[in-house]
Amino acid sequence: MKTDPPHILCVNPWVHDFAAFDFWARPLGLFTIAAILRQNRVRVSFLDCMNRFHPRKTKHVKVYWDGRGPFDKTRIPLPQELEIHLGDANGNFIRYGALKEWIEQDLLAMDRPDLILVTSVMTYWATGVAETIDLLKKVFPDVPVVLGGIYASLCESHARKCSGADHVITGPAEPILADLVETYTGFTLNQIPDPADLDATPFAALDLQDTMAYAPILTSRGCPFSCEYCASSFLEPRFRRRSPENVFQEIRHWHNHFQVKNFAFYDDALLINPEKYAFPLLERIIDEKLDIFFHTPNAVHIREISAKAADLMFKADFKTIRLGLETADFSSHRHDIKVKQDEFFTAVDHLRTAGFAKDQLGAYLLCGLPDQNLDEVEGSINLVKRLGLTPILAYYTPIPHTAMWADAVKNARFDITAHPALTNNSLFPCVHSQQDLERISQLKKMLK
């Protein structure tokens, strides 16, 4: 048994895409693993290929008031897997993140790690993961690389075959972390948090970043719903929650010690059972008079927006409210509609009465679904605008292990099973006709 703590490198890989922007996007799962490792005396380093604030950057870093901002970008060739199916019609392919030579210099200046842990997010960012691992192997050819995260979990066979990782793990990493570290480094982790008690998990190691423009906050794991287009219930089968006090202490920690002003809730179900969870948290925030702002990029469930919920969110300084509407065709029974028309209207009324302005309120509307009637999308846009909200089109990404995946495969205009990159929502894989693609372009213009 090894007694000296190992050096473990945690890596956030590049993104390869047609479009990307930092909408409060941080690898929270990787930071949580890093925190557990540090709790066990492990020496942890962090390599962020997506670092907007890289120390070698000489240009001014654009940072919006809410912490968001554009990534640096480098034009790269379209991957062969895409070119075979798409030709060069979609050739504007980009590596988002820090320049490759900067990342290579960072690695060359680093002490050799004993183990490298790489995360992954969108399934269709697989080529960015592979490029990152290729560089890691070039600099540290004899160091084992373990890949986890969303792409690894949802596209396991592809990740094992194509990512270049020595080991691919699926699902949450916490239950197997001790075995993983002992297998590859010989070091024993003595403190592994109880997965049933989220309060036992240390705060994510967000301080590993060069600059903390905002802090992601997760008050729960999993989701009580099982939407047919979403893989949340596959990735996290159990719905678990942190106590309001534990969440509050984390928010205060990042604000007091790192001057973080903007916080983004990553929850899929922030307002579920609010009397026990959200309300005590919001009341605590209000009572402490913290000078901070909150955002809900993952959307909140409309049915739970009571007058009290709206009032507390406004007083707690929520600046960005996103509603998971999906469609305003309330006569439809597709896509797991979780809200009725009167519930939607009532929720909007509560939010406006509480004091929220139009530019703070947005409603996500699904677009590009298999066999979707775009008249429904246009009608939804018009209704949302009439109610004084901002409509936001959420373009459909076919995701393996979801109820809609088989339908997407059947209806896609090319073989989306050939490579995860072909599921990219920028390609509208389930939109067949040129007429519908042009119609979607018109719908985009309606949003303005």
From TrEMBL:
Alphabetized SMART domains for the sequence = Elp3
> What GO annotations for molecular function exist for this entry?
4 iron, 4 sulfur cluster binding; catalytic activity; cobalamin binding; metal ion binding
Q: Which Pfam families match?
A: B12-binding (PF02310), Radical_SAM (PF04055)
GO cellular component entries: cytosol
Keywords linked to the UniProt accession? Iron, Iron-sulfur, Metal-binding, S-adenosyl-L-methionine
Which positions fall inside the B12-binding domain? 12-191
> Which part of the chain is the Radical SAM core domain?
209-427
Query: Domain of life, per the record?
Result: Bacteria
Its required cofactor(s), as named, are: [4Fe-4S] cluster
Q: Which PANTHER family match?
A: ANAEROBIC MAGNESIUM-PROTOPORPHYRIN IX MONOMETHYL ESTER CYCLASE-RELATED, PUTATIVE-RELATED
Protein name from the UniProt record: Radical SAM protein
This chain's source organism reads Desulfobacter hydrogenophilus
